[in-house]
Design goal:
The complex is a heterodimer. Chain A contains 4 helices and 8 strands; from the N terminus they run E-H-E-H-E-H-E-H-E-E-E-E. Chain A is an alpha/beta fold. Chain A has a single domain (3-173), classed as Rossmann fold (3-Layer(aba) Sandwich), CATH 3.40.50. Chain A has an 8-stranded mixed sheet with strand order 3-2-4-5-1-6-7-8, sandwiched between helices. In chain A, helix 4 (106-119) links the parallel strand 4 and strand 5. The longest helix of chain A is centred in the first third of the chain and has 14 residues, at 23-36. Chain B is α+β, with helices and mostly antiparallel strands. Chain B folds into 4 domains: 4-36 and 57-182, MutS, DNA mismatch repair protein, domain I (3-Layer(aba) Sandwich), CATH 3.40.1170.60; 193-245, DNA polymerase, domain 1, CATH 1.10.150; 261-357, DNA polymerase, Y-family, little finger domain (Dna Ligase, domain 1); 438-515, no CATH class. Chain B has 14 helices and 22 strands. In chain B, the strands form 5 sheets. In chain B, strands 16-22-21-20-19-18-17 form a 7-stranded antiparallel sheet, with no helix packed on it. In chain B, helix 12 packs antiparallel against helix 13. Chain B is elongated and about 120 Å long. The interface between A and B is large, with 69 and 68 residues.
Chain lengths: 186, 516
């Protein structure tokens, strides 16, 4: 992910996309960037899908990650994210809503927006569709463009890598709508 | 040469109550205790006489009165009726042993912040060995002012006396005109000579005897011949003579603080609402934290003990993630714990004890990125634990295993150093490029898989468009947790890229997760 698409501190960033489009890989890449700077982050995991082994392979220092598992309760996940963005010191609070994204009242979205602005936390929301509407400073959608397989014989034995691309849906600053593709190795 | 300071808090039982409710300082206050009047012993064989109110009657008696109440003539020993007759605006409170004990400990701990050698002189009285403090703090008057500051910080108003002996220091504290009275070395006898003999609090018969002899001041008592005094009055007379000379008879007994510091609050009415109880908890914790701050200490654990209207007790131990002395954070943690484990009945008394420890403050690095402040972090972690459960919260740690979803959870405690962790420490290789993430299904979902030539071609009703595998793995074969599986990466017709695996021990297929 390019620098122009990294979550902005004090703002809300949204990544949406279909299943297997690369949105979770983008999420882990953002967490890895934060950990690389020695900062701390929190992940509110609605459906408890986070895979620590994938995260460790991405370069995430798991000691700096607060993982909150919400047992598929979206209301609890939103409340947990609301608490975390009010705690100054986290560089990134990621909220993974999964496939079923709830309706969020506009007032709640503005509440989140002002909370992250006050504490200077970057709030990254990942889900099937957008959640916070105009409160998000940056919103993007991910698409899968291709898959490469690997194996010694004619029949592949292992998934090699996946190519995805990103389309910017909303940005407060000048960001090209189409971004160069990214390769994600399995 | 020995030097001592004496910290004295007058009318201590009343001061202990005022410490819990500072507004009472502006009002005449009497502390009452029930006195049980026993009926006269009946003569053998005489018929028992039934009295109204049972065999004994309770009479509320004044055990202490503050300075304002004493101005109106209220004295210890008076009945409540008599005290109210003298002072109609009198405010009364019941005598609570925990209040006095907590205030007594608080006074000693405040003294301990000035000198490591202190002695418990009784309720409202502490002696401090000040030898060597001149180099640390300053002259005796400065030491006295430091003691006043420390004791005022815990909500008590002291009088300080400094002299060569504890007795002289106590008399100086009791009779001095200001809050700090210093008797210069060698001037003890001269300074004490004019003090009334009533200051010594002698036994009534001894005081009466000395009064009949015309001895009114300590100087007059000190001038009496020692041998004659011993012959006529015995050891009490000798003891009184020593006191008049300002001599200490007993050795100095250093006081060591208890393992737990305790504060209590008796309630005038029962509390059955957690919101109201939170206010009481905050008040008690405020007093406790003031004591800790006065001694430059912090607490690393709390114990809350609630006395219930049903007669039982509700005790909770609140673990603090880091040593702290912040009232707000402690209150939040205590309330969250009581929300999760509420008392079964209305509360009549709150007692909180803290385990004090000494910590050294650390300084963050210049290039260290900001991290959540401990007090904010502990609060948000406690709130999250109440919301999702403590077991659903923390940092994952990979387990040294080939099992793909093997991890444990640890309490979240980010390292303070800026260096990122050793990414290879868990046996995970780190490529320079981006890694594809797996969205795991927990537990893996059982699926029906149709096979053609060992390769999956349909998962449930969804056709498989492409597949790669098998990737064979097994482990723990020496244990009851043995596992063996063949993994397949497949693309379904709807575009989902997922990982399937076949459990070779059970012969069943499972959906492990989706690559995303």
């Amino acid at each position: 992910m390019g620098d122009s698409l990294t979550p902005i501190r004090g703002e809300i960033t949204e990544i949406v996309g279909a299943l297997s489009s690369g949105r979770t890989s983008h999420l882990l890449a953002c967490l890895g960037d934060v950990m690389g700077r020695g900062e701390t982050a929190a992940l509110v995991d609605t459906e408890e899908i986070f895979d620590p082994r994938s995260a460790a392979a991405t370069g995430i220092d798991l000691r700096r990650l607060l993982w909150v598992r919400c047992g598929s309760n979206r209301e609890v996940a939103l409340r947990a994210a609301d608490m975390l963005v009010r705690c100054p010191g986290f560089a990134l609070v990621a909220l993974d809503l999964g496939e079923r994204v709830p309706r969020l009242p506009t007032t709640m979205a503005f509440r989140l927006k002002f909370a992250v602005r006050r504490t200077d936390v970057a709030l990254l929301i990942v889900g099937r569709r957008r959640l916070t509407g105009a409160s998000a400073a940056l919103a993007m959608e991910t698409f899968r463009e291709g898959i490469e397989w690997a194996g010694p014989g004619p029949a592949p034995t292992r998934l090699a890598r996946v190519r995805t691309t990103t389309r910017v849906l909303r940005a407060r600053r000048g960001v090209p709508e189409r971004q160069p593709p990214s390769w994600w190795s399995a | 040469m020995s030097r001592f300071a004496c910290v004295m808090v007058e009318y201590f039982s009343a001061a202990a109550v005022e410490r819990c409710d500072p507004a009472l300082r502006e009002r005449p206050l009497a502390i009452l205790k029930p006195r049980v009047d026993r009926p006269p012993v009946e003569r053998e064989g005489a018929p028992a006489v039934e009295r109204a109110g049972g065999p004994s009657a309770k009479i509320m008696t004044t055990v202490e009165a503050n300075a304002m109440a004493r101005e109106h003539g209220v004295r210890p020993g008076m009945t409540e009726t008599e005290a109210r007759a003298r002072c109609p605006a009198l405010v009364t409170r019941p005598w609570v042993e925990e209040h006095v004990a907590a205030a007594r400990h608080a006074l000693l701990e405040a003294a301990l912040a000035v000198s490591p050698r202190i002695e418990d002189g009784g309720a409202g009285l502490a002696y401090i060995d000040t030898v060597g403090l001149e180099r640390l703090i300053g002259d005796p008057a400065t030491i006295g002012r430091r003691l006043v500051h420390q004791v005022r910080a815990i909500g008590l108003i002291p009088r300080i006396g400094l002299a060569a002996s504890r007795t002289a220091a106590q008399i100086a504290a009791a009779t001095g005109s200001g809050s700090v009275t210093v008797i210069p070395p060698g001037h003890e006898r001269a300074m004490l000579a004019k003090v009334s003999i009533a200051t010594l609090d002698l036994a009534p018969d001894l005081a009466a005897t000395l009064g009949r002899w015309g001895v009114r001041t300590l100087g007059e008592l000190a001038a009496l011949p020692r041998e004659g005094l011993t012959a006529r009055l015995g050891p009490p007379g000798l003891h009184a003579h020593d006191l008049a000379l300002g001599l200490d008879r007993d050795p100095f007994r250093p006081w060591t603080p208890p393992l737990f510091w305790e504060e209590a609050q008796g309630l005038e009415w029962e509390i059955d609402s957690l919101g109201v109880l939170a206010g009481v908890l905050e008040t008690v914790l405020e007093r406790l934290c003031r004591r800790l701050a006065a001694a430059s200490l912090v607490a690393d654990s709390l114990e809350i003990r609630l006395s219930l209207a049903s007669g039982g007790h509700h005790a909770r131990a609140v673990a603090l993630a880091y040593p702290m002395s912040e009232v707000k954070s402690m209150t939040t943690l205590a309330v969250l714990d009581l929300e999760a484990h509420p008392p079964p009945a209305a509360v009549t008394r709150v007692t909180i004890s803290a385990h004090p420890i000494r910590t050294q403050a650390g300084q963050g690095g210049l290039w260290q990125p900001p991290a959540p402040a401990p007090r904010d972090l502990i609060t948000v972690l406690a709130r999250l634990a109440a919301l999702v459960g403590a077991d659903k919260l923390g940092s994952p740690v990979l387990v040294d295993s080939h099992r793909s979803d093997a991890f444990t959870m640890l309490a979240f405690s980010p390292p303070s150093d800026t260096a990122t962790g050793d990414r290879r420490r868990d046996g995970v290789s780190l490529d320079s490029g981006r890694r594809l993430a797996l969205r795991r299904l927990r537990p893996p979902r059982g699926v029906q898989v149709e096979i053609a030539g060992e390769r999956p071609v349909r998962m449930d009703t969804r056709p498989v468009m492409a597949s790669a595998g098998p990737w064979r793995g097994s482990g723990d074969w020496w244990d009851l947790q043995a596992w063996a599986r063949d993994e397949w990466d497949v693309v379904l017709a709807d575009g989902a890229l997922c990982r399937l695996f076949r459990d070779r021990l059970a012969g069943r297929w499972y959906l492990d997760g989706f690559y995303d």
